[in-house]
Amino acid sequence: MTMRKTPTCVSIPRIGAWALLAFGAQAQAQTSAVATPVEIHSGHVYVDAFINDQGPFHLLFDTGAVNVLTPGAAQRLGLKVNTNVSASGTGGVQAGGSARVKAVRLAGLSLTDQTFYVLDLPSGTADDGAVDGLIGWEWLNRYPARLDYAAQTLTFYPDGRPVVGSAAAPTHITFAGKRPQVEGKVDGLSGKFTIDTGSSVSLTLGAPFVAGQDLVAKYYPKTKVMSAIGIGGPVYAWITRADRLELGGALVTRPVTFLSQQASGTSASKDVAGNVGFGVLHRFTLTFDYPHALIYFEPNAQWSAPDLADRSGLRVVRSGQGFKIQYVAEGSPAALAGLKAGDLILSVDGAPCAGMSSDHLKGLLKGPVGTQLKLALDGENAGVTLTLADL
Questions:
Q1: Model pTM score
Q2: Does the N terminus or the C terminus of the chain have fewer Cβ atoms within 10 A?
Q3: Distance between CA 385 and CA 340 in Å, rounded?
Q4: What is the rounded distance in angstroms from the CA atom of residue 377 to the CA atom of residue 208?
Q5: CA distances from residue 237 to 194, 261, 292 in whole angstroms, order as listed
Q6: Lowest pLDDT segment from 194-203, 267-276, 332-341
Q7: Domains of the chain, each with CATH number or no CATH
Q8: Which three-class secondary structure state does DSSP give residue 283?
C-alpha cells in the first residue's frame, strides 16, 4: 500500500520519501526475543496492540503497509485527523487522513511519536469481526521478526539477531516504497514478487506482466473472478494455476494464480511481476530481516499441501446473520445456479450462517468437483443448489 500526502496546490510526494524513523520510534525493551500471539482468519494475520495506553486495538499485520487506523478507531482515541492523504492499493486510489499518536505498544515493545493514516478499510479485511487498522513497515524496519503461521506467533528481535531455523532459505529483498520484494520466477519467467502478508490469496500476477508475457494465451483461463477487494476497490482477474513458483531459495508448486486485469492500483505496476499472499506464505515460517535486507523461508508442515481453489465463482462477505454475495463470476457454477450479487445466504446444507465462520464457508466452496451445496437465501423459500466445478 502506497501513501501520499496531498497538501493544497502542492504536487503529491510519495511517503516513501519520508524518513519515518525520524518520527522518533524508540524501543523500550532490551531482551533478545519477544513474542506475541496472532490470529489467522480468512488468510489474514491479526495482532492486538495498545495505542496511547488504550485498547487493545485489533490490527492486520501487513508487510507492505504503513500505520493505518480506521476512522472509528481514530475517533475512539480522540485523535485530530487531517484530511490530507491519498492511498494507493491493489484496487486503485482512495482519499484519507492522517493523525499522530504518542505511542504504540506491542509484545512489550513500544514505538513512540508515530503517524497513522486514517482510512476506511475494504470489506473482507476482517470477515468475522471488527478490525481497527494495519501495522507493518514501522515495526519490521525497526526489528527483525519471525512469523510462525503454524504456531500462530509473531516474534520480534530487539537485539537485531533473529533466530532462524537450519532449513530456512535466505533471500535478498528490495523495497518498492515500503513493500518488500524478491527476485523470483513463475514457470520460468523472471521478475520481482511482492511478499504480502496482507493478501489472502496465493499469487496475483500484475496486469503489465500478464500482458507482456501473453499469459492469458499461455494459461488459457476460462473464468474471470473478483479476486480481492483492496484499498481503492475490487480487483478483477482470470483464475488459473501456475506450475512452479520460485522465490529465491523457496519453491511452491501449483499455486492458485490470478492474472490481474487492473488498469490502476499496485497490481497495475510495470515494475513488479506479481504479489505473493497467504496461500503461498502460510507454507513457511517467515523471518523478516529488513535491516539486513533479507527474508528467510522455512518450510513448515503445510509446505506440500495442495492449494485449494474456489469452485463456486462467488465472492461473499459477512452481513448480519448471513453472508452477502458481492460478486458472481460469469459462467461459473454460482451463475448457473441463479445466484446474483446482493443475495444473502442464510444457511448451507441446513447449517445457519449466523454461527459459521468465513473460513468454514470458504472451505465448503473449495470442496471437490461435483459437491452439491444447498443454500437457503433470504426471501427464497425453495433454496438454491450450488454444484461445485473447476473454474
A1: 0.85
A2: C
A3: 13
A4: 39
A5: 17, 5, 35
A6: 267-276
A7: 2-156 (2.40.70.10), 169-299 (2.40.70.10), 314-387 (2.30.42.10)
A8: coil
Name residue, grid cell 486503485.
92
User: What does the pLDDT read at residue 294?
Assistant: 94
Distance between CA atoms of residues 11 and 172, nearest Å: 33
Burial class (CB in 10 A: 0-12, 13-18, 19+), 360: middle
The answer to whether the beta carbons of residues 118 and 75 sit under 8 Å apart is no
Segment holding 322, helix H or strand E: strand 322-328
CB atoms within 10 A of CB 270: 10
Q: Which residues of 195-215 are buried (b: 16+ CB within 10 A; e: fewer)?
A: bbbbbbbbbbbbbbbbeebeb
End-to-end CA distance of the chain: 29
Q: Is residue 114's pLDDT more than 80?
A: yes
Residue with cell 444447498: 374
Label the pairing between strands 145-148 and 82-89: unpaired
Judge contact between 297 and 286, C-beta under 8 A.
yes
Q: Which of 310, 311, 246 has the alpha carbon at shortest distance from 280?
A: 246
CA dist 317 to 9, 22, 155, 260, 342, Å? 39, 39, 31, 21, 10
Assign 3-state DSSP to the chain and report helix, strand, coil percentages, each to 5: 15, 45, 40
